[in-house]
Design brief:
The chain is 2% helix and 50% strand. The chain is mainly beta. Strands 22, 23, 24, 25, 26, 27 and 28 form a seven-stranded antiparallel sheet that branches. The protein has a six-stranded mixed sheet with strand order 1-8-7-10-5-3, with no helix packed on it.
């Protein structure tokens, strides 16, 4: 069962150790609470409340805000690192359900700034940022039950990323289906219900650390979005709206959501049945775990709808992505018109356009407004069709995917499509004479049937096709062959 959490806007440190550390019975008295190291990664240290006593007077932290206390409590301290940001993590020992609070100085009456019960399963975890480097803070730990025991604790410094801008439903970020989208969720943020109190949040009793997104349906069907994180996340989805302007204008007056979840799971799924092309939906994802973590949005296996990816701006403006057979290998070329905080490209291939394998990493140039050219060689392409895409990675770890291209490695009876993705005319070139061309969409419905009567070349007019994925099948005297065509305008 979820318990309430009271935390202020601080964030970015993690305390970790593998060695034993004797904690104090009080933060300020005697020799004071032992100082834990702040590391770049978590290295747990043993902690124990055995032999300690419970003290709740002002000089010992008083009564904590997030849970009553009836067991002995122990104290540590840490010094804020240069980033001003840490994450404090615990793991179970004989204590399997612990509580933790963080206090600022000065002694003799430290002040609580954060308190957490169950962010890490039944164990607590707290992230803080905006702290003053060099200041001392105190950590208080105790068992949820009335007994003493052991556990592990660690503190690690984390890189602070700029706060998100999409914390208000009036400024949601665009997303689309087809490729996973990852973002870094913040902690200790203001609740969505505080920022936009006029919305009906239905099952969301709390809505901490909100991230708002919108999507536009390209092809109708059943919309199913997987939401995956390391710890507890929740969601709600509203719609349909006629367009983005209507969705943002109605922010702070959204009615009952179409779907929502307030479970304790780190994996959720948003579902909306019978969506129609052109409709806009607004998705709220909340980071209940209240720890900085990566959350990924992706099509669920049951999803049959597609969404418009042209609404999503990329940090890298891809001007060209093409590939061709070069002997027994495939040569890939791409160019960027501009780049912003681009760390690198991961080049991936697939035999079916669904399951992907990385085979090359190409460094980006960071930030530039100049044309930049790249090349990658696939020395082990699949025997027939190989699909390729680029996974572009920013310095902050966020990723975006390019459109998918295909290269046919068959020497006989193969056909090629160019350009792919296409937006006006895509040329088909076949070594064998084509008798017919069949085009189906992502849902398997036939959209074009063309009798070609033995030609080797055909120009496919895609100017009036909707954005999305199509499958082009040519029929020759040697058989049939299918390739994937992406239309993007």
């Amino acid at each position: 069962m979820k318990r309430s959490i009271k935390i202020i806007s601080l964030f970015a440190l993690t305390v970790c150790f593998e060695f034993a550390f004797g904690q104090s019975d009080t933060p300020c008295g005697g020799g004071g609470a032992p100082n834990l190291p702040v590391n770049s990664s978590c290295s747990f240290t043993a902690a124990s409340t055995n032999g300690l006593s419970l003290q709740t007077d002002a000089s010992n932290g008083g009564s904590p805000s997030c849970n009553s206390i009836s067991s002995p409590d122990g104290w540590f301290s840490f010094t804020v690192p240069a980033s001003g940001a840490v994450t404090i993590t615990t793991q179970a020992g004989s204590i399997t359900d612990a509580v933790m609070a963080v206090y600022s100085g000065p002694c003799p009456t430290p002040t609580e700034v954060a308190c957490n019960d169950d962010a890490n399963g039944l164990m607590p975890e707290i992230s803080l940022s905006g702290l003053t480097p060099g200041d001392t803070y105190f950590i208080r730990i105790w068992n949820f039950s009335s007994t003493s025991g052991t556990m592990d604790i660690c503190i690690s410094e984390i890189n602070v990323t700029p706060p998100p801008t999409n914390i208000d439903c009036s400024i949601p970020d665009p997303i689309c289906s087809g490729s996973p989208i990852s973002f870094t969720a913040q902690a200790n943020g203001t609740e969505a219900a505080v920022i936009d109190p006029g919305n009906n949040y239905d099952c969301l009793s709390t809505s901490p650390n909100p991230s708002w997104y919108y999507l536009e349906i390209d092809q109708g069907g059943s919309l199913a979005i997987d939401i995956t994180a390391g710890s507890d996340v929740d969601f709600a989805i509203w719609g349909p709206f006629a367009d983005v302007a209507t969705a943002t204008t109605n922010c702070n007056s959204y009615g009952l959501p179409l779907d929502c979840s307030y479970s304790t799971s780190a994996v959720e799924q948003a579902n909306v049945n019978s969506v129609v092309a052109g409709e806009v939906y607004v998705l709220l994802v909340t980071n209940y775990a209240n720890t900085v973590q990566t959350i990924t949005l992706n099509d669920a296996p049951s999803n049959t709808a597609t969404t418009d990816c042209s609404i999503v701006p990329l940090p890298v403006e891809l001007a060209l992505f093409s590939g061709y057979r070069d002997g027994n290998r495939v040569k890939l070329n791409w160019s960027t018109a501009s780049e912003t905080n681009n760390s690198h490209f991961v080049v991936e291939r697939s035999i079916d356009g669904l399951d992907w394998q990385a085979f090359d990493v190409v460094a980006g140039v960071g930030t530039t407004t100049s044309l930049t050219n790249y090349e990658s060689i696939d020395s082990k392409p699949y025997d027939r069709i190989s699909y390729y895409r680029l996974k572009q990675v920013d310095f902050d770890g966020s990723v975006n995917f390019s459109d998918i291209i295909s290269v046919n490695n068959s020497a006989v009876g193969s056909f090629e499509m160019y350009p792919n993705p296409g937006n006006s005319v895509t040329a088909l070139r076949s070594n064998a004479s084509m008798n017919s061309i069949l085009v189906t969409n992502a849902q398997g419905r036939t959209t074009e049937t063309i009798e070609t009567l033995g030609v080797h070349n055909y120009n496919l007019n895609v100017s009036d096709w909707r954005n999305g994925v199509y499958y082009v099948t040519i029929s020759t005297d040697q058989g049939t062959e299918t390739q994937r065509l992406t239309v993007l305008k």
